[in-house]
């Protein structure tokens, strides 16, 4: 059985995935419902809307997961490089490193005499000293920096989940009702995701959910408006036979 502190650390690191989850679901919902609204306003058929929506969900999932992987990988590589570089600094400049850690501990409220004793004791264990120096002096903790593969998978799956939800009504309902239901589902889903984020962040559930809901309405309205304007512009420029 894992130690309670270690278990708590794993939970905190797992909750770090909320960034990819929220980003993926939100983008999948908003981009898909905006596309569907715009295409319906432009007079597209059910088949065209479904094909374009499915293609958009797949392309978005691939693109978002690739972006999440590359960004997380770059962040991790930079983070690991900084850790390695500072470990060499501690090795090459031990007195400067000790002085830096002493000052960092003193700024946190420890008496200078206690700082001297702690730094001296830690310096006898190189790995402990290096880890403490990196965290206290440089702000580089030892927690897991977003695993690139996990981040990419969470982003892809959450984007697909968000994209399929508003697309589903277009498979079996009339287009007019399908869009209305898609907007309702999108708003409800975003409100739920916002509440979930608010719960984890210790914020007001209603306020956090409402923030996501408003974003959904604005995005859908913009998508519908763009499609409506394009239909009018194309209709005005096409020659009549």
Descriptive account of the structure:
The chain has 241 residues and is mainly alpha-helical. It has helices spanning 4-15, 18-41, 46-92, 94-107, 112-123, 126-136, 148-167, 175-201, 205-237.
Average the pLDDT over all residues and give the rounded result.
Answer: 76
Overall geometry: elongated
Let me know the number of strands: 0
Low-confidence stretches: none
Based on secondary structure, the structural category is: mainly alpha
- Give the radius of gyration: 26 Å
Helix proportion range: over 70%
Order of helices and strands: HHHHHHHHH
* First and last CA, distance: 78 Å
- Total number of distinct structural domains: 1
Report the β-strand fraction as a percent range.
under 5%
The count of helical stretches stands at 9
Largest sheet: none
Quick summary:
By secondary structure, the protein is mostly helical.
Topology:
Elements: H1 4-15, H2 18-41, H3 46-92, H4 94-107, H5 112-123, H6 126-136, H7 148-167, H8 175-201, H9 205-237
Helix pairs in contact: 2-3, 2-7, 2-8, 2-9, 3-4, 3-7, 4-5, 7-8, 8-9
List keywords for this structure.
about 240 residues, mainly alpha, 9 helices, about 85% helix
């Amino acid at each position: 059985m894992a130690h309670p502190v270690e278990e708590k650390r794993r939970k905190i690191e797992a909750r770090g995935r909320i960034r990819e989850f929220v980003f993926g679901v939100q983008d999948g919902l908003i981009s898909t419902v905006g596309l569907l609204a715009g295409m319906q306003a432009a007079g597209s058929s059910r088949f065209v809307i479904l094909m374009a929506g499915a293609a958009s969900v797949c392309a978005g999932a691939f693109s978002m997961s690739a972006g999440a992987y590359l960004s997380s990988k770059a962040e991790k590589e930079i983070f690991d490089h900084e850790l390695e570089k500072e470990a060499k600094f501690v090795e090459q400049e031990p007195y400067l490193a000790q002085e830096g850690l002493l000052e960092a501990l003193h700024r946190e409220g420890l008496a200078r005499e206690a700082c001297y004793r702690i730094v001296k004791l830690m310096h006898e264990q190189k790995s402990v000293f290096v880890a403490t120096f990196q965290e206290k002096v440089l702000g580089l903790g030892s927690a897991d920096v977003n695993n690139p593969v996990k981040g990419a998978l969470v982003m892809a799956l959450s984007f697909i989940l968000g994209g399929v939800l508003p697309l589903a009504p277009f498979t079996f309902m009339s287009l007019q009702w399908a869009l209305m239901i898609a907007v309702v589902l999108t708003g409800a889903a975003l409100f739920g995701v916002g509440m979930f984020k608010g719960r984890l962040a210790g914020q007001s559930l209603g306020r956090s959910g409402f923030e996501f809901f408003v974003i959904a309405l604005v995005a859908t309205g913009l998508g519908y408006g763009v499609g409506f304007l394009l239909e009018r512009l194309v209709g005005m420029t096409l020659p009549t036979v």
